[in-house]
Every structure is written in C-alpha cells, then in structure tokens.
Amino acid sequence: MRTRQGSRTRGDTPRRDHHDWASETYVDEWVRRQQAEDPSRAARFQLICDLFPFPNDATVTILDVGAGYGPASTFILDRYPHATCVAQDGSAPMLDRARHLVTKYGARLQLHRSDLFGAKWLPAHLGPFDAAVSSSCLHNLRDFTRIRQIYREIRKRLKPGGVFLNADLINAPTVGLRQRYDGVTAARRHREGAAAEELAALVRHGRRSPASPAREPFPATLDQHLAALKASGFKDVDCFWKELRRAVFGGYA
Ligand SMILES: C[S@@+](CC[C@H](N)C(=O)[O-])C[C@H]1O[C@@H](n2cnc3c(N)ncnc32)[C@H](O)[C@@H]1O
Q1: Spacing, Cα 176 to ligand 1 middle (Å)
Q2: What is the mean pLDDT of the chain?
Q3: How confident is the model at residue 2 (pLDDT cuts 50, 70, 90)?
Q4: Which of 1, 166, 199, 213 has its CA 20 to 30 A from that of 108?
C-alpha cells in the first residue's frame, strides 16, 4: 500500500490528508477512538433528526454522505422505523464495519461504495431523497470547489421540501478567532489530561497534522459553506448549531 497523499490503493479513495481510509488497521483504530465520542455526538444527530421535514413514522429515503461505520445512519434508522438509509462511503474497510448493520436493519440500510471525487458517486438509481445528511466527511476532501459541486449534486437529488444537513469541521473566520479557538482547544486538552507527548506521537506517526499558526486546517469557513449552499439552490440556509470549528448547517430544497 502506498502512503503518499493522493495515492490510490486497490481502487480505494485516494488519500488527500493524514487519514488512511484504505487501511484496515488505521480504520480499526480510528473507529475505536471515534466510537468513544459517539455519546457526545448524539445531541447533534438528534438535532439533525429534529430538523427533518417529516414525522417519525414517515416512509422516507435518506442519504448519508461519507457514512463511515454508520453512526448517523443507525441513529436515524432507530428513530424512523419506516426510513431507508443509503450509506455512501469510499472506504472498503469503513463499509466493512457497517456491513453487520445490514443484518440488523435489512433492506432499510443500503451500503454504497463510491469516491466523492468520481463523477458517478451518486448513481441515478439511488434516490430521490427526502433528506441527505453528512457527518465529519466533506472536510476530508480538502477541496472546496469539489464540496460546492457536491452541494449542487445533492440539491438536485432531493425531493421538493427535502433537507440537507451537514455536521462538519469549519475554519475560524478571522486570525483573532483562530488564535482564540486554538487556545480553547489547548486548554480543554490540558484539562482532559491529554499528554502533549501523546499528541506529538500522533503527529510523528503521521496521524494528525501539526497545528499550523499560518493556515486554517479545513476547506472553508461557515460563511463560505452557507454561501455555497445558497448558490446551490438551497432555501432557508442556516447554521443550526456551532461550537468553535464544529457546526451543523444546511438548507431545504
Ligand atoms: C471522519 S469519517 C466520518 C464517518 C462517519 N460519517 C462519522 O460521522 O463517524 C470520514 C469518512 O469520509 C469518507 N471519505 C473521505 N474521503 C472520501 C471520498 N473522497 N469519497 C468517499 N468517502 C470519503 C471516509 O472513508 C470516512 O468514512
């Protein structure tokens, strides 16, 4: 397996950052760490459900973009007994970790493997969708031009009145806020007892980008995302929740 950025392995999604979604070992470790945070993500997933424009007993189809091991899809399926989720992701090891869920949910969970950089990442036979969600995925593309195209593509595949909700990482809007956010994050880590050595080791092993004081790490600010959603034809675009560089934002078709 090659490890340079942009390299492609066994037909997997090419790497564009420090994540190696094509690696079984990397994905195993990542999922284990992420699952520990799932309880704290539940409030954001619940907010996403509360913003859906249909009741809990509706028969609906929902797209989960970059679904990974399926935390957002399963949260939704547990609360919408007549919903079907299409869990899209480019990583074979990730989708393997979602596969056991098909036994639980049957045809209500459909796994779809495709690269978000591919022109046919969302084939015509999937959808149209009553809602589309995405959690911690699109920032990984590191390419705001592509993210804007994906917003347009999702918009076209939503039913009238449908919604797209994106829980993702965003850049601080100003240099002053960048420094404040970095300070808050460092203070939290300190309080939580995360040893500096542990973080340094992650950076050394290429698992985390070192913080750069000169550049923000993600593709766009919240304002840029909201503008892109409006330009893609979404209405009632807003940020529904935000804390530092994390936000839930989206709009209605
Ligand atoms: C941080 S994980 C988030 C997974 C899940 N949505 C969650 O909230 O835990 C990012 C996901 O995006 C997927 N991903 C990253 N780049 C991709 C691409 N170009 N095409 C398809 N999926 C991609 C990865 O495989 C990974 O499963």
Answers
A1: 30
A2: 90
A3: very low
A4: 166
Rounded-to-integer distance, Cα 199 and Cα 201, Å: 5
Closest C-alpha to 34, from 117, 99, 97, 109 = 97
Residue 216 Cα distances to 40, 219, 227, 238, angstroms: 25, 8, 19, 22
Longest Cα pair distance anywhere in the chain, in angstroms?
51
Give pLDDT tens digits for 74-89. 999 999 999 999 999 9
Superfamily of domain 24-171+219-252: Vaccinia Virus protein VP39 (3.40.50.150)
- For strands 84-89 and 246-252, give the pairing: unpaired
- Say if ligand 1 is within 6 A of residue 34 CB: yes
Q: Where are the domains of the chain?
A: 24-171+219-252, 173-217
* Shortest-distance Cα residue to atom 22 of ligand 1: 90
